[in-house]
Amino acid sequence: MSQLSFSSFDAMLLVRDAQGRYLPASADQILNMARQVIDQKYQRGALFASPELVKEYLCTKLAGFEHEVFAALFLDSQHRLLEYVELFRGTIDAAAVYPREVVKEALRVNAAAVIFSHNHPSGNPEPSQADKVLTQRLKEALALVDVRTLDHVIVGGEATASFAEQGLL
């Protein structure tokens, strides 16, 4: 695998291959670089003080996947990041999510709160009935161990839908 580096020429992102040549970056390489940048910007302890910050972070992490990815932002009691975890990977239109595994992960990082997120590769961020049922089950399971569910953000391309903003939590 080649080492990626940033360079700009005529608004084109270039990457250096194993032989040291600069070639145009693929969409996947650009998305991977964006994910690395967001990881550096929002490290453990970063405060998620507004829904806009959360959405920006999650769009960068989840946009562009051709399959569903279900993730969680585990937060402390002050809504600072403990850990971002991609918990489950699915197909183009579904991902199996297991509440038991989510609870185990929340306890592992000693989370006080959680924000769920997943992407819709179709580009439509509107929650399905299955998304609503799953979110309620996860919220109930986490409440048993005193972990608050703050939101569930669905990423569809560059658009998002927030359960909290829609009054679904």
UniProtKB/TrEMBL annotation:
SUPFAM superfamilies attached to this UniProt entry: JAB1/MPN domain (SSF102712)
Protein name as it appears in the record: DNA repair protein RadC
InterPro entries the record matches: MPN, RadC_JAB, UPF0758, UPF0758_CS
GO biological process: proteolysis
Database matches in NCBIfam families: radc (TIGR00608)
Keyword Ribosomal protein among record annotations: no
Keywords: Hydrolase, Metal-binding, Metalloprotease, Protease, Zinc
Domain MPN: 47-169
Superkingdom, natural source: Bacteria
Stretch forming the signal peptide: none
GO terms of molecular function: metal ion binding; metallopeptidase activity
